[in-house]
Amino acid sequence: MEEVITATKASSRNQTTSSPSDSAAILPLNIPLLSALLAFPLAQFLKLFTTWYKEKRWDSKRLIGSGGMPSSHSATVTALAVAIGLQDGTGGTAFAIAVALACVVMYDASGVRLHAGRQAEV
Predict the structure, then answer these.
(1) Distance between the two ends of the chain, CA-based, in angstroms?
(2) Disulfide: which of 23, 28, 43, 105 matches 75 by Cβ 3.0-4.6 Å?
(3) Sign of torsion, CA 74 89 37 46?
(4) Domains of the chain: which residue ranges?
């Protein structure tokens, strides 16, 4: 005969087995969050080399500046979506939300770049 676990039993069982140090240890193991947080500075760092390749000069302002390629915002949401897809599979709700977010961010970024380029021509 199977035991039925109620919400009260489950919460009391979790309270006895988890400690504050356990929840702190879970944060570094959140692979989607870590990949998204690492993609942003990596994209910013790569902007140094893309600027050097295009303009033949080192521009350290690109480390903290916005705009240019690769897009750090697009890299962040793409890394998040890929990590969720690899970890949880592509059939889940979290992956669908991450892909929708990535599409909105990249569409917005492409529109901003297009209009900024047109404004620069004027």
Answers:
(1) 77
(2) 43
(3) negative
(4) 30-121
